[in-house]
Amino acid sequence: MRHLRAGLGLALVVTSALAAGCGGGSKPGLKLTLIDSSAQRPSNVAVYFTVDTSAGDPVPGLTAESFQIYEDGRPVSALESRKTILNPEVAAAHHTLLLIDMSGSVTESGDLPLIVEAARGFASRVEKYQKVGVYAFDGSKEIHRIAGFSTGPQLASAIDRLADFKARDPSTNLNGAVVAALDVLARQMRTSPQPLTFGTLVVFTDGTDRAHRVLRDQLFDALAAVDIDVLVIGVGGEIDASELEAIGQDGAILSKDRSQVASSFEAAAARVEAFSRRYYLLGYCSPARAGQHEVTIRTSVRGRSGSLRYRYDARGFGPNCDPARNPSFNIRRPAPPKPTPTAPDRQSSDRFDD
After folding, report:
1. Is the peptide bond before 42 cis (omega within 30 degrees of 0)?
2. Which of 259, 262, 264 is nearest to 348 (CA)?
3. Which residues contact 170 (CB under 8 A, 6 or more apart)?
4. Rounded to an integer, what distance in angstroms lies between the CA atom of residue 179 and that of residue 7?
5. How far apart are alpha carbons 336 and 138 in whole angstroms?
6. Where are the beta strands (DSSP E) in the chain?
7. Which residues does residue 134 pair with via DSSP β-bridges, in sequence order?
8. Per-residue CA distances from 316 to 9, 292, 296 (Å)
9. Close Cβ partners of 78 (under 8 Å, ≥ 6 residues apart)
10. If we measure between CA atoms, which residue out of 232, 250, 254 comes closest to residue 241?
11. What pLDDT is recorded for position 225?
12. Confidence band (pLDDT; 50, 70, 90) for 48?
């Protein structure tokens, strides 16, 4: 359970976060999931949340005008509220670790230049929204750092060094590598100065675990113990689809065709990008000056609609509000909200949308 601490006597209580569909034969609704909220003097209210379809697909690219704000069931004037989308980087940090199979079956396959180029393309797209770290694994007990969490030219040049990677052990320690990567990513998240941190692990492999250094049950215990999204890219004739889908709890992009390496990395990058852009930090100036109030935030996108609700205390509120003021969040590293699909959520998918 997450806890909120009151700041300046302005206690805020979350009552619900729910999705609502449009009436009369409309498309399924949107799901707005509250992550954190802030209410502070003079009269600033900010809410950090995600928007997904009811099928679990992220909804990126919305603007402040896409959201309607209600207090106690009555609309708050856009002119009065001056609602704005704040830079989410002031409140949250997102990190992605790209874990690349560099076992003998990869380094000796002739596909290494293609994999390096695909990894560069992945990092180039994802680094626009978050820091990216790159690690490699083979049959060894440990994983090998290629690039620390960073962006820009230093990340690209570090990935280029994969072309000269020599496997120390030609076997495939897939299970052990995933466990080690989860630990690296969790430690990186703990060092973030932002009050909210989120992590995504993206794993590329052309096969299955051969080293048996870490048992399957140990792997899934490690996956269950962390609040990290995991996406798997599996390409090649030796992949075990059911095993990789089980590891990729947030998606698995699978193909037996080795020529699909580049497109699979592109699909994974699009997925991570979309999930980065599904987060919104909406700030506004409340007209309330005292008392407890219920806020509803609603949005409608292409025939789908959804809302979230929460309560806050406006004690001590007054004029001179700047809606762009940074929020005061108190939660450290909450669990990233998982979309709850209405359709079966285990999809081996090249079907991810941009």
Report:
1. yes
2. 264
3. 103, 104, 105, 107, 108, 138, 139
4. 38
5. 30
6. 12-18, 30-40, 44-53, 67-71, 74-75, 84-85, 92-101, 131-137, 144-150, 196-205, 229-235, 252-255, 279-285, 292-301, 304-313
7. 98, 147
8. 8, 12, 21
9. 65
10. 254
11. 96
12. very high
Nearest to 189 by CA among 342, 332, 303: 332
Q: Which amino acid is at 234?
A: G
pLDDT, mean of residues 77-96: 90
Helix (H) or strand (E) holding 158: helix 153-160
- Give me the amino acid identity at 124: S
Considering the entire predicted model, what is its pTM? 0.80
Beta bridge partners of 45: 39, 284
Evaluate if residue 334 carries a pLDDT over 80.
Answer: no
CA atoms within 13 A on the CB side of 67: 29
pLDDT, tens digit (0-9, with 9 covering 90-100), for 163-203: 999 999 999 999 999 999 999 999 999 998 888 889 999 99
User: Residue 250: what pLDDT?
Assistant: 92
Q: State how beta strands 279-285 and 84-85 pair.
A: antiparallel
3-state secondary structure of 153: helix
Exposure pattern of 156-166 as b/e (b: 16+ CB <10 Å)?
bebbeebeebe
Percentage with pLDDT > 90 across the chain = 76
Domains and CATH numbers, the chain: 12-90+279-313 (2.60.40), 92-276 (3.40.50.410)
What pLDDT band is residue 47 in, cutting at 50, 70 and 90?
very high
With a cut of 80, say whether residue 352 has pLDDT above it.
no
